[in-house]
Amino acid sequence: LVQHALVAMFEMFHQGKISIEKIIEKMAHNPAKLFKIEKRGFIKEGYFADLVILNAGLPFTVKKDNLLYKCGWSPFEGTTFKSRITHTFVNGNLVYSNGKVKDIHIGERLTFDR
């Protein structure tokens, strides 16, 4: 479900039920705070640049051939979302662009301040 979590939340934005700021708070800031993940969850100097670029006006339909899950299925198959993630950056490196995952391995183990 990770692949479609953000676009699913943006459906509620399109319906006027939640603001973009609240989505960012719930999906980036709060998990980093709750689990005390160091230098993640915010755009700040010295933090890791884990970012997505989302086009809120570019719809797409979830199909088996555009799934990135290793299991090969999704409960969202057949669902059309109004938004689409176009790019993903991990540690400041482009790892996903317009449906294609880059063949680079730059992820780092998370560290926790507990």
Any overview of this molecule?
A hairpin with a 2-residue loop joins strand 5 and strand 6. The chain has two helices and six strands. The chain has 114 residues and is an alpha+beta fold. The chain has one domain (2-101): Urease, subunit C, domain 1 (Roll). The longest helix is centred in the N-terminal third of the chain and has 15 residues, at 20-34. The model has no long low-confidence stretch (mean pLDDT 93). 6% of the residues are buried.
Please write out the topology.
Layout: H1 2-14, H2 20-34, E1 51-55, E2 60-61, E3 80-81, E4 84-90, E5 93-97, E6 100-101
Antiparallel strand pairs: 1-4, 2-3, 4-5, 5-6
Please tag this protein with its features:
20% strand, 114 residues, alpha+beta, two-stranded antiparallel sheet, four-stranded antiparallel β-sheet
Question: Could you give a short description of this structure?
Answer:
The chain is of the alpha+beta class and 114 residues long.
| Count of extended strands | 6
Number of helices: 2
**So what's the overall shape?**
globular
In terms of quaternary structure, what is this? single chain
Calculate the terminal CA-CA distance, rounded to whole Å.
27 Å
Low-confidence stretches: none
Number of domains: 1
Strand order of the largest sheet: 1-4-5-6
Question: Helical proportion?
Answer: 10-25%
Structural class: alpha+beta
**What integer value in Å does the Rg equal?**
15 Å
What's the architecture, going by CATH? Roll
What's the level 1 CATH class? Mainly Beta
Largest sheet at a glance? 4 strands, antiparallel
Percent strand equals 15-25%
Element order: H for helix, E for strand:
HHEEEEEE
Q: What is the CATH T-level topology? A: Urease, subunit C, domain 1
Fourth-tier CATH superfamily name = Urease, subunit C, domain 1
Average predicted confidence as pLDDT = 93
